Amino acid sequence: MKIIDLEHGDARLITDLLPVLLELRPHLTEELFLSILEEGQGQGLRFTAAYGADGLCVGAAGWRIVATTSVVRKLYVDDLVTSAASRSTGVGSALLAHLEQHAQAAGCAVLALDSGTQRTDAHRFYFRERMAVTAFSFDKPLR
User: Fold this and answer.
1) N or C, which terminus of the chain has less Cβ within 10 Å?
2) How much is the pTM?
3) Residue ranges of domains in the chain
């Protein structure tokens, strides 16, 4: 497996990563994704892709380094997805390990993510990866 941090403007964000990301975020269109990339770049949004031996993208992670008063600095994972055909093959673990290296290099105290309450398979994976539930996440829809 090969893991690559994709730079803003890299065509592989659309050709390789977006099809995998759509498995988790089906509401995205190419146009919306490009808009999010443009706005998110200024907020530190980055993407990492995992490629299988056949050269196909099998995993995607969207992430950023965030300064907070609670933990000072953390690496926040916006998206973590393995293609359905590649689940349970180590892709998710490899992506998390890669992101953990980024977090440590940046002096982060925490690697954090949110996961929808309905995603029980993902929760089992996070627990196996030694992650813990440390807070509730509250949302108030504005539309």
Assistant:
1) C
2) 0.90
3) 2-128
